[in-house]
Automatic annotation (TrEMBL):
Keywords: Ion transport, Transport. The lineage of its organism: Bacteria, Bacillati, Bacillota, Bacilli, Lactobacillales. PROSITE patterns: RCK_C, RCK_N. Residues 73-190 form the RCK N-terminal domain. Residues 1-70 form the RCK C-terminal domain. It comes from Streptococcus cristatus. This is Trk system potassium uptake protein TrkA. The keyword Transport applies.
Length: 214
């Protein structure tokens, strides 16, 4: 993969040794600077307009690309029709984002269908593998797993991560469980003292713009 570093990129002024700590499974095999190609060592400092040539398995390259380049999320699946889902849908209902809710409780699913007539609601177990595959979860830009069971949210997010979902948002009430997903490419919704924290996302009329942490 070929990638040109922009002046505003978080990669600017980063050494290759630092790069390896951030992206241990992605290798910079060559760098082109001012028309000259070189094979860098760990002390090499990345500069704006550098063209880097990357190698690694496909999933790791995709993750690198998604972290470095902010993108607008155009589709969002929400698993679990609870209070947080209701709050998010009220924010996003007039946006251009394709929205879907999967809820296991039939009465709750019907309530959401009535409250949000334009919403696509599926009555089913959104933590079940067959339902996720049937609803084409891998094709969504982001999925928020918001059921009332922390363990189910964590396991589902891990499965979605393996499917290649670009952004996983996971609701966890017990912060002691955060260590389980510490190494997963997931984003955590943590409720403490009544606060809902949604880091790395900016809600807008046209979509959710991801702000890259890299």
């Amino acid at each position: 993969m070929e990638f040109k570093i922009k002046p505003e990129s978080h990669l600017c002024q980063m050494s290759l040794s630092q790069f390896r700590k951030h992206f241990p499974h992605v290798i910079i095999c060559a760098i082109e600077r001012e028309g000259k190609l070189s094979i860098p060592d760990g002390d090499f400092i990345l500069q704006p307009s550098d063209k880097i040539f990357l190698t690694g398995n496909r999933s790791e390259i995709v993750r690198f690309h998604n972290k470095i380049r902010p993108r607008v999320i155009k589709s969002l699946m929400i698993i679990g029709a609870g209070k947080i889902a209701y709050y998010l849908l009220n924010i996003l209902k007039n946006s251009k984002i394709e929205l879907k809710v999967v809820e296991i409780n039939r009465q709750r699913a019907e309530f959401f269908s009535q409250e949000f007539p334009e919403l696509y609601v599926v009555n089913g177990d959104g933590t079940a593998k067959d339902i996720l595959l049937e609803e084409r979860a891998a094709h969504y830009d982001a999925i928020a797993t918001l059921t009332g069971v922390d363990e189910e949210n964590i396991i589902t997010s891990m499965f979605l991560n393996n499917l290649g979902v670009q952004k996983n948002i996971t609701k966890i009430n017990r912060t002691s469980l955060l260590e389980i997903i510490d190494n997963q490419d997931s984003q955590v919704l943590s409720r403490q003292k009544g606060l809902l924290l949604i880091p790395l996302c900016t809600l807008s009329a046209d979509g959710i713009t991801r702000n890259s942490p890299a």
